[in-house]
Design a protein that fits this description.
The protein is 76% helix and 0% strand. By secondary structure, it is mostly helical. The protein has one domain. About 12% of the residues have low confidence.
């Protein structure tokens, strides 16, 4: 009997030791566990991301169709689509379509982060599209005006490649400088606008993912350079006159590039 009681006491002691040991190992407070579980639940699933991407693409294509209708072009017919002129105004329209689509799709599948998505949409449009695009178009327009007013001419060389570089280098420099300035100023203005609207003092810094949103500005710059090399009717402010193969190819890449800002806004958390 004494031996039986002794073994029973030993088992109880081991059981208590095991419980104490478990409690020491698991030091996470209950509220922290709940917070972690909520955070895990906030992550978007692959299916949700696909839905947001689809909504963004639909928004961008809708904007593209409206641009085509304005120019009398059916974007669903390749022979007509090739004649679609994509300049500054068209880029803004496509960007709005992309952001509206991404925001709508994002809120539909992830209502808990609605505020973050709206804030990111404003950041994308103001900081990554409107200001950089405006700076690039304006910079090139001012350069073109200066060239005409002061009759500026690049050095002429016997080599065709050297001549092409000589002629395009100033436009490339103006485009790059305007884009860099537009990105910095746009980011500052976007932060001011967001902080004013949402009554929350936060500084949203420039991210690597933002670079994708500037593809449209870079491609617009490419069309301007192409126009400079192969002049055609049109104006620098709208980006028309992309008669060369380089300008035409660059302008065709702008629509898919503008899916990025809408998708980033739709997946913001």
């Amino acid at each position: 009997m004494l031996i039986s009681n002794t073994f029973s006491n030993i088992n109880q002691i081991k059981s208590l030791q095991a419980q104490v040991s478990f409690q020491k190992r698991d030091k996470t407070p209950a509220f922290a566990k709940n917070t972690l579980e909520e955070k895990e639940a906030e992550f978007l699933s692959q299916n949700q991301k696909v839905q947001i991407f689809a909504a963004t693409a639909i928004g961008m294509i809708t904007g593209l169709a409206l641009c085509g209708r304005r120019q009398g072009v059916n974007i669903f017919k390749w022979e007509e689509f090739k004649n679609l002129k994509i300049g500054s105004l068209e880029i803004l329209g496509l960007a709005v379509g992309s952001l509206v689509g991404g925001l709508t799709g994002g809120i539909a599948v992830d209502k808990t982060n609605k505020r973050d998505k709206i804030r990111e949409s404003l950041q994308q449009f103001v900081g990554n599209i409107a200001f950089p695009l405006g700076f690039v178009a304006t910079g090139n327009m001012l350069y073109d005006a200066a060239v005409k007013k002061f009759d500026l001419k690049p050095p002429v060389f016997e080599n065709k490649i050297a001549n092409a570089i000589s002629k395009s280098a100033p436009v490339v420099a103006v485009t790059a400088g305007s884009l860099a300035l537009g990105i910095v100023v746009g980011n500052k203005v976007a932060n001011l606008v967001n902080n004013k609207i949402f009554k929350k003092d936060e500084e949203r810094k420039i991210k690597m993912s933002d670079l994708a949103a500037h593809v449209d500005d870079t491609l617009l710059g490419a069309t301007l350079v192409a126009q400079n090399l192969a002049p055609a009717q049109g104006t620098l402010a709208t980006g028309y006159g992309t008669a060369s193969a380089i300008g035409s190819a660059a302008s065709r890449l702008i629509p898919p590039a503008l899916i990025v800002p809408g998708y980033v806004a739709g997946t913001a958390q």
